[in-house]
Amino acid sequence: MRLAGNPELAAELDRWGRRVFLASFGLLVSLQSFFWLNERYGWVQPGFPESGISAVAAESRVPGDSTRGPVAPEIPKLRDPLAILAGKEVMVVDRKARLVPLSLAREGTDLPVITGLEDEPNRAELLRNALDALNELRRRHYALYARLSELHYDAGGGWVAYLTDNALPILLGRQELEERLRTLALALPELEKMESLDSLALVDLRFAGQIVVRSPYRRGV
Q: Taking the mean position of all CA atoms in its chain, how far away is CA 44?
């Protein structure tokens, strides 16, 4: 920059202009680095927003470069996978309610599936109850835990269990899920000695101290 009338001012403006240019250049480099990093790594927060029921997985979107090689995804570790949570994303969940997308989990394909919680306003509490009940079932009655295909929450009637080898709905109700599953674990072997599960319409354990078995309605019988 040149000003013929005031050489000292011109020199000062020249120095000022160089400082502005350097500062602008540094800011541009910082912004470029930020957007490059943001493009390189994507952060997602699947699962429920409530405290204690969330997980963060950072996965590289860049296959690698010539200097560092491929970048492996950072996968949150589950200490004790307990169930699969089905919703907008399919997640593997452990007994501490830590979540990892099924696609990133190292195990979990043979676990019971929890469904029906996605639109429930108290889904965090329902999930916590389901995890506590499943953990106790696995600890004390593993045969039923291993046979449990799905634990579904129905807004109208509460929890419903399904077995891996039968589509028979087993109604468990809203309350005391752990107790209802314990009752099912004890009663199911005896029930199967007397009835074929394929011949039943449903099993109802919603009433304390009672097991109601319903057969399909047959017209004219």
A: 12
